[in-house]
Write a structure and sequence with these properties.
Layout: E1 5-10, E2 13-17, E3 23-26, E4 48-50, H1 56-59, H2 62-68, E5 72-76, H3 77-85, E6 93-96, E7 101-104, E8 107-113, E9 119-122, E10 125-128, E11 133-138, E12 144-147, H4 156-164, E13 168-172, H5 181-191, E14 195-199, H6 211-220, E15 227-228, E16 236-238
């Protein structure tokens, strides 16, 4: 098996570089993200953008990156309609729905459920752009990486674990807009993953959940064998 890499850009933004070097940016909140290192804020070395929902701290720089790079985007169908309305062609925006999957460049991208709100603000006008979602990526060697997006814990994670057993789960742990560390630890157990990357923490004062809290909660559930990648924004993990 080859290596894949995941870089945390701060907040809920991550970048996956697949085994064959395909670059996927998840929720590109770069400019305006106080946690994103300055050297990463103009990243345009992107092949695919995955958009989990319409909130500004996740939709972020999507339009700018699409305009300034060759990147394609995948998102729920209502979000795809919004992007088509902004002038992006059908060939660059792949809209599908929860439970569906798309084979793309040797990978398979499945859209999963998420428990969260999703409205995109255009000026002061709220736009409905479909539900919040997550993504499960099957890599070239069949290992799987789960990007939960913004979400609370939900029972379907148990089924996702039974069916997929992700090598890595990227989970929010902030406890204010998303599940808390205790719930995230239970999600790790349900997902049966080998490793977890906690995100969506430490950006703003209200986000009280921290990785050391997740570690403690996982230990209490007997999950000390699961690797916790406690990294700083800009750092990359290799698996």
């Amino acid at each position: 098996m080859g290596d894949f890499k995941v870089t945390w850009y701060g907040h809920g933004t991550t970048k996956l570089v697949s085994i064959n070097g395909f670059k996927i940016l998840v929720d590109p909140f770069l400019n305006g993200n106080p946690a994103c290192p300055p050297e990463l804020r103009n990243d345009r070395d992107v092949d695919l953008i995955l958009i989990t929902h319409g909130h500004g701290d996740h939709f972020g720089d999507t339009l700018m990156i699409l305009k300034e790079s060759h990147a394609m985007a995948m998102c729920v169908v209502e979000m795809a309609s919004y992007l088509h309305g902004k002038g992006f062609s059908q060939s660059r925006i792949i809209g599908f729905n929860i439970g569906g999957s798309v084979e793309f460049n040797g990978l398979r991208v499945m859209m999963t459920n998420a428990v969260h709100s999703s409205v995109l603000l255009e000026g002061n006008r709220p736009l409905e752009v479909g539900p919040a979602v997550g993504f499960l990526i099957t890599l070239e060697d069949q290992r799987k990486v789960y990007f939960a997006g913004d979400t609370d814990i939900f029972s379907e994670m148990q089924i996702l674990g039974e069916l997929c057993k992700p090598t890595l789960a990227v989970l929010p742990i902030d406890g204010y807009y998303n599940m808390c560390p205790r719930a995230a630890a239970k999600a790790v157990q349900m997902l049966q993953c080998d490793a977890v990357l906690p995100v969506h923490h430490s950006t703003f004062a209200v986000l009280w959940g921290k990785p050391n809290m997740l570690k403690k909660e996982m230990a209490e559930l007997g999950l000390s064998h699961v690797t916790i990648h406690m990294v700083s924004p800009g750092q990359t993990i290799t698996i």
